[in-house]
Amino acid sequence: MATIKDVAKRAGVSPSTASRAMHDSPLISEETKDKVRQAMRELDYSPNFAAQNLANQTSNTIGVILPAREEAVGDNPFFIQIIQGLASICNAHDQLVSVASGQTTEELIKNIETMIKRGNITRFVFVYSQANDPVLECIKQHSKIHYVVIGSPYTDKETTCYVDNDNFKAGYDATKFLLDKGIAQVVYAHTNLAEKVQNARYKGYLAALAEVGLAESPLCLSTVPAAEMQNAQAFSKIMAKSSGKVGVVACDDILALEIQHLCDICEVERSELALLGFNNSLLAKTARPALTSVEIFPRFLGSEAAALAISTKENDNLKLETDHVVVPHKIVERASTKI
Amino acid sequence: MATIKDVAKRAGVSPSTASRAMHDSPLISEETKDKVRQAMRELDYSPNFAAQNLANQTSNTIGVILPAREEAVGDNPFFIQIIQGLASICNAHDQLVSVASGQTTEELIKNIETMIKRGNITRFVFVYSQANDPVLECIKQHSKIHYVVIGSPYTDKETTCYVDNDNFKAGYDATKFLLDKGIAQVVYAHTNLAEKVQNARYKGYLAALAEVGLAESPLCLSTVPAAEMQNAQAFSKIMAKSSGKVGVVACDDILALEIQHLCDICEVERSELALLGFNNSLLAKTARPALTSVEIFPRFLGSEAAALAISTKENDNLKLETDHVVVPHKIVERASTKI
């Protein structure tokens, strides 16, 4: 019986490309998809291959690890879309998706250990990436466990499988989007530049400004409610120096909403800004003016991570290829940047 | 080896109460918890009982069914909290949580069938309840499959296991909360009274008004973007008839935000309203004025559903007790109702 590796070889592509082509990923060209489909027909390949492994030692289950802190999850509505993307691909390949959760790091680690010992689960997807993560350290200590990270890994990036957006490019595109409207001052609003996502978008912002010889104008805000007056002062200072329409790239939709509130507090018309956020969440749609936001396609982050975890299942030594996948982004324009 | 049924019998409670007591549910009194703990000690009961079943025909996995329509999931940030609650209890009982998802109803049903056939999964939790659901019909056709619904079942309510908030009481409490502030006109904003949740909250609203002899003032809105002017007309009409502060019970936070926007369109000061939503989502926290909202504890909806699905596992005939659990709600007051 043909495996996905056989199909990949005949089509002249990598196993992960073959898998992506099979589930119609937007990352794969139609030409490549045709090649893979033809190889599938020639080899009489059935995508239900994974069912073959049911009797094996290795379980046909992918473990999905949610971050331990409850707030971290509640504040990120796109986790559920990531899980949907994961489940969709896994279900289609007869793989189960099993969720590991915990209210504390200790509880989460204990639950993962149970999944490994009792469930024989050997493949995991982290739906988050954070610095100094004890959960990741625990997984790394298991020699036969393989994992895929959604987001940019903080350590061992070269040897880790991960799926991410190109946040540098996203920051660059967002800034250029505002500059192309003739805006002469663009602010970058953030809370913590030590966070990889915020930092990469910031670097992209700087690159876009450098191209047109404009100076940077970073605005560091706090999301602690008590910091509102301090935020307002920092915002006022920037607005006082500016003339004409000010562009603001906010590192996420939550922060973009905070900027709208700062406008009200500082008696700046919301329409004086050209404001843009990231994540294209429900917050962006319900804001007034509705918020232009960068869609990061969480569903595809999930499905690509699943494909990466599944596609090399047949490798004899069960090692995943060291690989990473970049999921595209897209600016969704709404009223907040209409000039 | 003692089972949870033995513990329950000795403590003089039902198996589901025993299970809830074990995982420290807020629904169980301290007195009952003490009784259960003592019975556990006397019988040397280990909560890892489920591991005993690993070798059995029945898998130690609970299937979690997400609604098929992607938008339905994306718009409900509390699904992830439900899953966390489910996973937390299941993990603690050595049960895996496996997610079923699909972009279409057909895909979802196919995936569930695979989980049943290949994964031997016999217990499912629906994280939603909707009228005429073909997925539920499919599950019902399997005689050995048992399921728990989160929400109020549209059919066979008497014989279905479900976990829900008391939405009548929640609507009543929300309305009374506004009336107790001396507000003489309270509006109920909704989109569709055929939906059980919206309807139950509406009935509670009517009951609270009836107690003080006030007339109802329902406001039917559409969430279709094109309906904004129509919404504004309906809202203006209600505001024109009113004098003094108007209370608004909006059937969820999204609709409460829509009311805030209608204020801006109709040139009504947002502070003229005492506005309240449901779900206590991120939208409530980021609104201005920040929105008073009824917390429905999605995490507990998940953990209670898991407890219900697990607790009767040892029943010989694998039938779940017909049971339902009511998760409490709580009004979280913010600026939108401060007078």
From TrEMBL, chains A, B:
SUPFAM superfamilies: lambda repressor-like DNA-binding domains (SSF47413), Periplasmic binding protein-like I (SSF53822). The keyword Transcription regulation applies. The keyword Heme does not apply. Keywords: DNA-binding, Transcription, Transcription regulation. GO terms for molecular function: DNA-binding transcription factor activity; transcription cis-regulatory region binding. CDD domains: HTH_LacI. SMART domains: HTH_LACI. InterPro entries: HTH_LacI (IPR000843), LacI/GalR-like_sensor (IPR046335), Lambda_DNA-bd_dom_sf (IPR010982), Peripla_BP_I (IPR028082). This is Catabolite control protein A, ccpA. It comes from Ligilactobacillus animalis.
